[in-house]
Amino acid sequence: MADDAESPFCNCLFFTANALGRTITRLAEESFAPTGLSPSHAFVVMAVNKTPGVTPTALAAAMQLERSTVTRLVDYLDNKGWVKRKSEGRNIYLYPEKPAKVADARIRKAWQGLYEKYAQILGQEAARNLTAATYAAHQQLNIIKKGRT
After folding, report:
1. Integer Rg of the chain from CA
2. Confidence category of residue 149, pLDDT binned at 50, 70, 90
3. pTM
4. Tell me: the pLDDT tens digits for 37-65?
5. Residue 65 belongs to what H/E stretch?
6. pLDDT tens digits for range 89-142
7. 8 Å CB contact between 32 and 39
8. Which of 75, 110, 132, 135 is buried deepest, with most CB atoms within 10 A?
9. First to last CA, the chain
10. Smallest Cα–Cα separation from 105: which of 27, 35, 39?
11. How far apart are CA 108 and CA 55, in angstroms?
12. Residues 6+ apart with CB under 8 A from 40
């Protein structure tokens, strides 16, 4: 199994999707390192900056994450003073604090840098096509997961 072509797993979507996930995660961590935030935290900050007053439920749907994962990410950002929760009755709304607003341009630059890294390697058209195909596959498989076949 010296090279990837000889791997018995290279034709398995589970294996290749996870390998791609690990690789893109490393690239994202490198790209977002200058912001002082993990990629996931940075995306929460971007979303809250873009839509002040967003609910955790709406944020979870937009980020395609479980609500508990968003809660954990927001807990961290709240403790660091980047995001503030405001309760109105049973509803919780998220608002950016000054550090989030100040870092917005830096975070967006990191996101653009991530795209440029993988687009340089894959080519822009291939990068766009891979992103679209991956999202489409995710959507189709998610329909099956939710029992809506």
Report:
1. 18
2. very low
3. 0.87
4. 999 999 999 999 999 999 999 999 999 99
5. none
6. 999 999 999 999 999 999 999 999 999 999 999 999 999 999 999 999 999 998
7. yes
8. 110
9. 38
10. 35
11. 22
12. 73
Residue 7's pLDDT is 81
Q: Alpha carbon 132 to chain centroid distance?
A: 15
Give the count of alpha carbons within 13 A of 112, CB side only.
6
Q: Where are the beta strands (DSSP E) in the chain?
A: 83-88, 91-96
Neighbours of 94 (CB within 10 A): 24
Instruction: Please tell me the number of Cα atoms within 13 Å of 144 on its side-chain side.
Output: 5
Q: Determine contact, residues 34/110, Cβ cutoff 8 Å.
A: yes
Please give the full DSSP string across 84-95, using - where no structure is assigned.
EEEEETTEEEEE
Length of the chain, please?
Answer: 149
